[in-house]
Amino acid sequence: MKKRIISMLLAACLILSMTAMTTACSTSKASDSSASATTSFTDSTGRTVEVPTNITRIVPSGSLAQMALFALAPDKFVGITSDWTDLNKQYLDTQYLNLPVLGQFYGMKNLNLEEVAKVNPQIIIDIGDPKKTVVEDMDAIQTQVGIPAVHIDGTLDKMPEAYRTLGKLLGMTKEGEALAKYCEGVNSDTQAIMNKVGEAGKLKVVYCSGDNGLNVIAKGSIHAEVIDKVGNNVAVLDSVSSMGTGDTVSMEQLLLWDPDVIIFAPDSIYSTVASDPAWQQLTAIKNGKYYEVPNGPYNWMGSPPSVNRYMGDIWMAQLLYPDQAKYNVYDKAKEYYKLFYHCDLTQDQYNALVANSLGKTTK
After folding, report:
1. What CA–CA distance (Å, rounded) separates 106 from 64?
2. Taking the CA of residue 193 as centre, how many other CA atoms within 13 Å lie in the half-sphere pointing to its CB?
3. What's the rounded Cα separation, in Å, for the pair 189 and 196?
């Protein structure tokens, strides 16, 4: 009887063991299958690319993509295009500050393929204004690194659609929709303000940068998207640079344009023009209608021209047309910084940002 009971117990144990092994094996296979599962994704160029179904490891192609993606999925980053500056770090959580620097595919074109391989991303995402060669470029980077690469159009008008597309791609539809609605809201509110202002009511504006202030962001440049929308950008040139440094002009040309308002880029000559006889000839300088773009963690007007420009819309509309843009810029900035930088913007931070950017300039 004892032998029979022992035999039965051993048989039961064997059955349980085999069941556990079968379950574990099935679970492992399901896990492997899930990890290797792919889906077809059509990007903004019309390219159809096989991408992982569950994307948890991403790399941006450049600074524009990095900024747009950081708003949606910072925890999926396995690398960044360039090291964070001290200015960036004042607004970003420390958990994102030590990501590997991989370089970028466009611009400096210093993408380090060895470093990309080390961090083992599942996808490379490009966001921004499409280059003429974007299809060939995305195919080339995909071939070089053996990782899916996709392009998403990312002008200001197309960012709502971009975030909805990214939300589906990354399995973050709720978060993508929240960002899309925000972008739509700013676009709509800015357009409503400009409808009230009308074309005839737009102030003449020039955006100056460079060590001597004689580089302008010309009308029609991607870097002038905010100025062209919110102001009458009188910096009209026959040939427009696509570079963020803009086009070099003479003081004589500035005098011919004689804008109502001059916007200076950070680290330009904002602080010295009031005492400079040449600049004092300009109406905007004489009237104290010159300002410096807020800068932190990025320039609100561009550099790079990504989603930071939504703050440019908000700020510049209120600066130029306070009677139509009746809102508190700090309240708007707090909302923006929380959504896009995951940062609780303090009053002191805000005051520092707009110290030279709002109200009457003291000559």
Report:
1. 10
2. 25
3. 11
SS3 51: strand
206 pairs with which residues across the strands?
262
Domain containing residue 167: 38-171
Categorize the per-residue pLDDT at 24 as very low, low, confident or very high, splitting at 50, 70 and 90.
very low
* Token couple for 1: 């009887």
Residues 317 and 213 occupy one common structural domain = yes
Predicted pLDDT at 163:
98
Residue 219's identity, in one-letter code, is K
List, for residues 173-188, the tens digit of each pLDDT value. Answer: 999 999 999 999 999 9
244 in any annotated domain: yes
Q: Which of 311, 233, 312, 216 is nearest to 268 (CA)?
A: 216
Residues 139 and 240 in one domain: no
pTM (2 d.p.): 0.87
Quick check: helix, strand or coil at residue 135?
A: helix
Confirm if 125 and 150 have CB atoms less than 8 A apart. yes
Tally the domains of the chain: 2
* Angle in degrees, 0-180, between the axes of helices 63-72 and 173-197, rounded to the nearest 10: 110
